[in-house]
Known about the structure:
249 residues; alpha/beta; Metallo-beta-lactamase, Chain A; 5-stranded mixed β-sheet; 7 helices
Amino acid sequence: MTLSITALSVGxxxxxxxxxxxxxxxxxxxxxxxxxxxxxxxxxxxxxVDTGADATRAWExxxxxxxxxxxxxxxVALRSLGLEPDQVPIVVNTHLHWDHxxxxxxxxxxxxxxxxxxxxxxRNPVTWHRGLFDVxxxxxxxxxRAEERLSPVEGDSELAPGVTLVALPGHTPGSQGxxxxxxxxxxxxxxxxVYLYDNxxxxxxxxxxxxxxYTDLIAHQESLLKIESLACKVIPSxxxxxxxxxxFE
Length: 249
């Protein structure tokens, strides 16, 4: 068995304030970022990690400019690998923010893996995070389109041979990553625990930089230290260099 990870762009968000991604850093700067869907292949069946945003809601609901070409639609992007959405038995949501979980419904036969703490919080988030989960008046959260197939888990667990769920709370209460044992290395799809390589590499003040959005900064620090203990290569969730590399093995 030889596992590999492919990073597919499923849209791009523009002009985000830099401190939203790098905590208290980059004031006055903006950044454009990709929305990424990861595909793990080489096992018994493909595994999807995160399904991207509903681009039709991005500006009206979230006031974020998102562009998505036809080729970046998640089902179309998957077909570029020779796979059909109904061939996917497992989708993992690193968390239930709108830009990571809005297209779960495109994978009709998939069991959708989410941390139980995440699901509980997403149903009734604190006021300041309600928009991130699409919990707004007159709006049904996009992740609820496939709610009947959600399969909650608790903590770290093996998902498949060579694929392990890793609880990484802090960005949200139930944030998680996916650790993949590839032929050449160990890679962690880190979710929004690590937005950019800049977050992981840190700066003169800190070994790592948390994101600007979080529910528990202390838990986030502990999650970053947990990643250190895994002795793995980190794959951020929104770094253009991840899409440029595309394949991790």
